[in-house]
Amino acid sequence: MEFSSKLIEKAVNEMSQLPGIGKRTALRLVLHLLKQPKEQTGFLSQALVTMREDIKYCNSCHNISDSVLCEICANKNRNHQIICIVEDIRDVMAIENTGQFRGIYHVLGGKISPIDGVGPSQLNIITLVEKVKSGSVNEIIFALSPTMEGDTTNFYIYKQIADCEIVISTIARGISVGDELEYADEVTLGRSILHRVPFEKSFKNN
User: Fold this and answer.
1) CA-to-CA separations, 181 to 38, 67, 116, 146, in angstroms, rounded
2) DSSP letter string over 93-162?
């Protein structure tokens, strides 16, 4: 792709680093921004810079937040004795959109995947285990995507807390095996949360 401006070329190259954005799409976006008032582009760039510099992670659940505690963990109307374990913020948003869950979350920040060099120590597992063993939790719900990596992560955590006297459940397999949680429709995902099953039963039946 030939550019008549090095400035445009640089902007397109940076834009095309975003997932799902190829060079042609990046060029359309850059040309669109070029047609907008300068202050509009300034608002966008400032919002991105501010987000990158000021974003925080919740001290309790590791969710992305504007403060030390995210809005969910700070909400006294949520049931703090039920923890839903998810991979990342996209899964929190997906479950919240169902309106079916009133507990809190624990964001692992990924899944155990030896092939990708991701082990348990690189995930937010220790803080979860400590939280469970503190006695403040009645139930944890595994809500990782039903993939091999998701199941491996579920089982690893299960072994860490198996001796704790709590309910350990997993979302019902209304989510197709191998699918990513964030792409599930809200009705299916909501039903999976409501009809969760004991985790031990889930892997014994596989």
Assistant:
1) 39, 26, 20, 8
2) HHHHTTT---EEEEE-SS--BGGGTB-GGGSTTHHHHHHHHTT--SEEEE---SSHHHHHHHHHHHHHHT
Measured from the Cβ of residue 158, the count of other Cβ atoms closer than 10 Å reads 17
Return d(Cα 184, Cα 102) in angstroms, integer. Answer: 19
Q: Which helix (H) or strand (E) holds 81?
A: strand 79-86
Beta bridge pairs of residue 139:
82, 167
* pLDDT less than 70: residues of the chain: 173-181, 183-185, 187-188, 191, 195, 197, 201-206
The total number of residues shown for the chain amounts to: 206
Q: The whole model's pTM is what?
A: 0.76
> pLDDT tens, 168-191?
998 876 555 455 667 666 766 776
Report the pLDDT value the prediction gives residue 201, as an integer from 0 to 100.
63
| Kind of pairing between the strands at 56-57 and 64-65 | antiparallel
Secondary structure of residue 71 in the 3-state scheme: helix
Q: How far apart, in whole angstroms, are the C-alpha atoms of residue 122 and residue 112?
A: 9
